[in-house]
Amino acid sequence: MIMEVSTGEPFEPSASPLQVALRQLNIACEKLGLEPGLQRIFANPKRILTVSVPVNRDDGSIEVFQGYRVHHNVARGPAKGGIRFHPQVTMEEVIALAMWMTWKCAVADIPFGGAKGGVVCDPKSLSQGELERLTRRFTSEISIILGPEKDIPAPDVYTNPQVMSWIMDTFSMHCGFSVPAVVTGKPLEIGGSQGRNEATGRGCVYAIQEAAAALGLKLNQASVVVQGFGNVGSTTALILHEECGAKVVAVSDSTGGIYNPGGLDPRKVLGHKKRTGTVTGFTDSEDISNQELLSLPCDVLIPAALEGQITRENAHTVSAKMIAEGANGPTTPEADVVLREKGVFVIPDILANIGGVVVSYFEWVQGLQHFFWSREEVNEELRKRMARSFSEVYSVSQEHRVDMRTAAYMIAVRRVAEATRIRGIYP
Ligand code: GLU
Q1: Are residues 141 and 218 in the same domain?
Q2: Last residue within a domain, chosen from 352, 380, 408
Q3: Which residue, 84, 147, 167, 70, is CA-closest to 114?
Q4: Residue 381: Cβ within 10 Å count
Q5: Integer Cα distance of 53 and 36 in angstroms
Q6: Of 8, 192, 265, 351, which one has the greatest count of Cβ atoms within 10 A?
Q7: Shared-domain flag, residues 114 and 159
């Protein structure tokens, strides 16, 4: 299926991530006056690999899972992006996520293209052994397009450093020698980078600090609401609370949220979630729904869960001064219009959450050089890169009088377009 370029009317209420990504691309291309041929290239992924993943279950049965690895664009370097394990993964969603990776790497100005992978499964219902067999077989099936110079996966929703270890080991077994640079987000013991595990959340905090300075907002007096309490949401909440003195008033996960206007201690919430499997039921807080959470009055709202959370239907209820998108694709283009009219300052996903892939880049470089950096060096380099990307996007948004998302897209699309023009279209 080749995506045709159209001006695209609003797709809501059922806007899929791919429709959202194409619409965002379209807005940027119009602003840039980009040649339709280049837009046509960017609207389509370079390659899609669909695989069947048979797994021996612990009960002796065999189950077959569907998996995808998509390369969206490699004009600026090897394909880069995470792998998610989630029951609702679809091929279209993985294409959108791969496309967003292309723009993120370009906004960060790191030499990667965009990729994403997904396996349709419920990892919570798999034993550790089943998860390992699933990961190894999926890796084996997609290994024909992986490699440090070709495609470098990383963690995403419901995958973690342990899963990355199995990917690294499986790929290495195929090669007959260790290839640490084939994957990032690995544990330190096998060539991971200091600071990678918390990098997306830490980068998000750095972006929020830059935005706060630009808007004259004091973070040590700010109230924060976080949707999603996985790696990104929990890390962002912890750092904002412990290092910036912000008051985290509400957090949520897939089962629901908790609210305390006087402030929560994210570390204690994390302990409660580890013990009980959910943030709900935490002491000294009121249980709320994810919808209620998104409309809470606060200074900073951080959607750090899945796509399509802030839509035309609920955008008018948002009462935050600033939104920092820890998740990929949490806001639809129609919601963007509403937020803009309300004067909400949005740090878009392709800027707010690039910290993960930026430190992935550092991990890849360290792996290739066999020379490792301290945590301080990693964090300082991450801070510099986040500040630089933020200031570039902010300047374009001021200069062209566009919102931050359009500005980030304009920078990203321009960079990938330039690389494509210089390389030319083969043959
Ligand atoms: N999955 C993360 C993201 O969406 C990290 C990707 C990477 O490090 O390659 O940005």
Answers
A1: no
A2: 352
A3: 70
A4: 16
A5: 38
A6: 351
A7: yes
- Could you tell me the CATH number of the domain that includes residue 125? 3.40.50.10860
For ligand 1, whether the C-beta of 154 sits within 6 Å is yes
Cα of 396 vs centre of ligand 1, distance in Å, is 25
The confidence score (pLDDT) of residue 46 equals: 98
User: How many structural domains are present in the chain?
Assistant: 2
Structural contact between residues 329 and 349, judged by C-beta atoms closer than 8 angstroms:
yes
* pTM: predicted TM-score of the whole model, two decimal places: 0.97
Based on the domain organization, do 58 and 114 belong to the same domain?
yes
Same domain for 211 and 299, yes or no, is yes
Whether residue 203 sits in one domain with residue 173: no
For residue 27, is it within any domain? no
Q: Please indicate whether residue 194, judged by its CB atom, sits closer than 6 Å to ligand 1.
A: no
From the CA of 61, how far away is ligand 1's center (Å)? 33
Residue 93: CB within 6 Å of ligand 1? no
Q: How many whole angstroms from 283 Cα to the centroid of ligand 1?
A: 33
Check pocket membership of 357 for ligand 1, CB cut-off 6 A: yes
Nearest CA to ligand 1 atom 8: 357
pLDDT value of residue 2 = 77
Tell me how far the alpha carbon of residue 414 lies from the centroid of ligand 1, in angstroms. Answer: 21
For 154, residues 6+ apart whose C-beta sits below 8 A from its C-beta are 80, 81, 82, 83, 164, 183, 184, 185, 356, 357, 360
| Catalytic member of 80, 104, 116, 321 | 116
The best mutation among 159, 202, 357, 366 to test binding of ligand 1, ranked by most ligand atoms within 8 Å of the C-beta, falls on 357
Q: Which atom of ligand 1 is nearest to the CA of 112?
A: 9
In a domain, 11, yes or no: no
Task: Please report where in the chains the tokens 């609207």 appear, as a residue.
Answer: 43
* DSSP code per residue over 175-188: HTS--GGG-SS--G
pLDDT of the residue at 12: 58
Alpha helix segments (H runs only) across 290-344? 290-294, 333-342
What pLDDT, on the 0 to 100 scale, is given for residue 6?
A: 53
Q: Are 148 and 291 in a shared domain?
A: no
**Given a cut of 50, is residue 7 above it in pLDDT?**
no
Length of the chain: 427
C-beta of 102 in contact with ligand 1 (< 6 A): no
**Domain range spanning residue 230?**
199-352
Domain contains 256: yes
CATH number of the domain bearing residue 211: 3.40.50.720
Domain end, chosen from 291, 324, 352, is at: 352
Q: What digits encode the pLDDT tens for the residues 269-309?
A: 999 999 999 999 999 899 999 999 999 999 999 999 999 99
Task: For residues 298 and 203, state if they share a domain.
Answer: yes
Residue 186: active-site member: no
Helices (H), 216-287: 231-242, 266-276
**CA 199 to ligand 1 centroid distance, Å:** 10
| 328 and 248 part of one domain | yes
